[in-house]
Write a structure and sequence with these properties.
The chain is an alpha/beta fold. The protein contains 10 helices and 17 strands. It binds nicotinamide-adenine-dinucleotide.
Length: 392
């Protein structure tokens, strides 16, 4: 017996399309599943996206008002895939309607908004998931197994970085990601959040941080039409101010006593989507980089010291990989990680098992972000407070 789960997708941009394709692929990828996802309704303000929703993705209907989609009685779970500042109202409405919610990260654009969403879900008692999709990479799951089983010994140091070029073109349009009222913070909300979620997943809680930020492209062409993620203006176009940070770095101390460093940028030139970590223990080390998602580098103390790192290729011996392709070193990619997270979330809805990362884990991420923001102002180390704990 499979559970039918009616889905609403709010915003059919990059991630709305990725999650919708997951719902379409899950039946063929996971024949032993306990769920049958059904694309019921898509909400988007753009008419061409609504047209694609029904004609290309097979949604039963498409609407311009997301509130109508959330309220639909044939919807069981809502995917929030609109720009950051729409997350909280969408989540609050879904919670009020008693629907399960999967929200793209970072959940709102500011730490207090993530907390607001978490509280709404807690009060309503609805199931939650958050789109930290990189945690689901089969070789990241394998890295966690190696760390948890003690193969690396005691973890002494962690390096996390997410260096992307998505904002490196100074003629890249001033889209929602660069605006305070639509994105909230810049790279700390957008991609440092991925790095911190990976670090917390692999090494555990972070106790204190100190960091810095910078904005390297201060003005960008103002969009005139329906601007997408990759829109580009002309040198003579009128420009507006970039309102949030392009770069952030951070030193941290984990609760375990390990040290950590983080770097994140959307304007560096060179690394294109370098969401990467290195984790160092007393008996070994691991290195992973999303640009080479199917490779995990593993160094072991005790063998021949001249051996150096060994490359472990992805393959069907690692979690979930075999759903996509059999054998070893046959690659999987970005949207496959989204399919794994969506499948896992849907399965948790059917089975009642707890899903992680949910909104609780999203609050863990923004608790670190909040301490970083405080350190920008104080120029000192700041303790990480659990923002889920109401101190009033
Ligand atoms: N997990 C990841 O790896 C990842 C990657 C990219 C983006 N994201 C997150 O996904 C979210 C969306 O980002 P994106 O890159 O897909 O954005 P996008 O700009 O590509 O798409 C946003 C969509 O929302 C629609 N929209 C805007 N206002 C709306 C409204 N009022 N009602 C309904 N639809 C509306 C837009 O028309 C567009 O189709 C963001 O929160 C972002 O942080 C996550």
């Amino acid at each position: 017996m499979r559970t039918r789960i009616g889905i609403a997708v709010l915003g059919l941009g990059w991630m709305g399309q990725a999650h919708s394709r997951s719902a379409l692929r899950i039946p063929s990828l996971f024949p032993d599943r306990g769920v049958d996802p059904v694309l019921v309704v898509c909400a988007d303000t753009e008419a061409d996206r609504r047209e694609r929703a029904t004609s290309d993705f097979g949604f039963q209907r498409a609407v311009s008002d997301w509130r109508e989609a959330v309220a639909s009685p044939d919807v069981d779970a809502v995917w929030v895939t609109a720009p950051n500042m729409l997350h909280v109202p969408m989540i609050e409405a879904a919670c009020a309607a008693g629907k399960a919610v999967f929200s793209e990260k970072p959940i709102g654009g500011k730490p207090e908004q993530t907390v607001q969403a978490y509280r709404a879900a807690q009060a309503a008692g609805v199931r939650t998931g958050v789109g930290y999709n990189y945690l689901w990479a089969p070789l990241v799951l394998h890295a966690k197994e190696l760390i948890d089983s003690g193969e690396l010994g005691e973890i002494t140091h962690y390096r996390g970085r997410f260096l992307s070029m998505y904002g490196s073109d100074e003629l890249g349009l001033l889209t929602w990601r660069f605006m305070l009222d639509q994105a909230g913070y810049g790279v700390t909300s957008d991609i440092l959040s991925h790095s911190v979620s990976l670090a917390q997943f692999l090494v555990g809680g972070i106790d204190e941080v100190v960091g810095m930020k910078n904005t390297t492209i201060t003005h960008r062409p103002i969009p005139t039409g329906a601007a997408g993620h990759y829109g580009r203006g002309a040198p003579e176009d009128p420009k507006g101010v970039v309102e949030n940070e392009d770069f952030a770095s951070m030193l941290c101390r984990f609760a375990s006593g390990a040290t950590g460093t983080f770097e994140t940028s959307r304007t560096t030139v060179g690394p294109e989507s370098q969401n990467a970590f290195e984790v160092y223990g007393t008996k070994g080390a691991l290195a992973w980089n999303f640009e080479r998602v199917n490779e995990l580098e593993y160094y072991r103390v005790g063998g021949d010291v001249n051996t150096g790192y060994t490359t472990i290729f992805g393959g069907d011996r690692f979690p979930f990989h075999g759903a996509f392709v059999p054998g070893q070193a046959n690659a999987i990619g970005f949207e496959d990680l989204v399919a794994i997270e969506d499948y896992s979330f849907l399965e948790s809805l059917a089975s009642g098992a707890r899903y992680s990362p949910g909104f609780r884990e999203a609050v863990d991420v923004v608790s670190v972000q909040q301490a970083l923001i405080e350190s920008w102002a104080s120029r000192r180390w700041e303790p990480v407070r659990d923002l889920a704990v109401d101190e009033s």
